[in-house]
Amino acid sequence: MRFVHLAILSGLACLSFAAPITNSTIPRILPDGLPVPSPSELELIEDRAHGTLPNGPPPPSISEGGLTNLKLVAFNELFEVAFFHELITNITDKVLGYRFSNEDDYYFVLRGLKAILAQEELHVLDANNALAHFGIDPIEPCKYDFPVQDFDSAILLASTFTDVVLGTLQDVVERFAIGGDFGLSRVVSSIIGQEGEQQGWFRIMQGKVPSELPFLTTSDLNFAFTAIQSFIVPNSCPNIGSIPLETLEPLNVIRPPTAKTGNIMVSFFDHHHETIESILWMVYINQQNVPVVEPLHVISREDNEVVAEALFPWDAYQMNGLTFAAVTATEGPFTNAYTVAKATIAGPGIFVIN
């Protein structure tokens, strides 16, 4: 097995309905004819993905929550397709910062990324095909802006958003179960495995242990929906309004924590002055544990921007891996990620330790 570490560089989800959608009014702004590839384009995608769209029969019905799941999955997978397509293009064009000192490493990485791109393309098609099957318009792509400058920063971002996806798909499976959409949960579970495989590869390329945690950090659909929008050009999504999820006030992590107990510093905007008289709290979601709550201390308020800090109790809870941070006006108690998201004033802040 070949292992590629970032130091070699000279620069520096998804459900089973096989028939592609046929809405010809959707603009083709992604590779391979997505989101509406022709039969020949789909054949090429499946060849590069080393597998096909599932061809099993669809369930006879779906809950409203199940439709929301499908919309969020399609929304996320379109973002991932755009990201990996741009990364592959930068490597292929040998853009400064995306050049390899060893030709074998160049072809090895490119081959892996092309397979990942094709697999993500099939995830988009599966989710949108499922929506079409139930008479719902497919989710359309937006315009994206990725804050990366080289291969190192691109793989770091890919690793982080894949972590978020792995947490979000847990919520998708649970919501399918709650809504009685049992026929949709198995394929999503297979996607979790695929995303985990690629995440291990991203971590190896960063010189990290391939498996991050014994129980991966969980999330909430609204957190993912908010986080993805930080990479979207404003007002560029044709039908984002059809996704019935909440866009939360972003939480900027100014000073992230390290693998020891210390303070985290954050900032967020309070446009309606809702927090001026409130006692605020920082809530951390890490692994499969009950959310951790710490007092949030406001340092300054200027032009609606709040800067604050809170303790990050790493030692007490061994808070490795992915953590979601959220500001609330209540200390709970919080039982899970869903209850945190419902109470969130600003969030999620996202960081990974290990």
The major pleated sheet works out as:
7 strands, antiparallel
* Beta-strand content: 15-25%
Count of discrete alpha- or pi-helical segments spanning 4 or more residues: 8
Mean pLDDT: 91
Query: Low-confidence runs (pLDDT<50, min 5 residues)?
Result: 1-28
The figure for the number of domains is 2
**Percentage of helical residues?**
25-40%
Describe this structure in words.
By secondary structure, this protein is an alpha+beta fold. The protein folds into two domains: 6-242, no CATH class; 252-353, Immunoglobulin-like (Sandwich), CATH 2.60.40.10. Helix content is 40%, strand content 16%. Strands 1-2-5-4-3-6-7 form a seven-stranded antiparallel sheet.
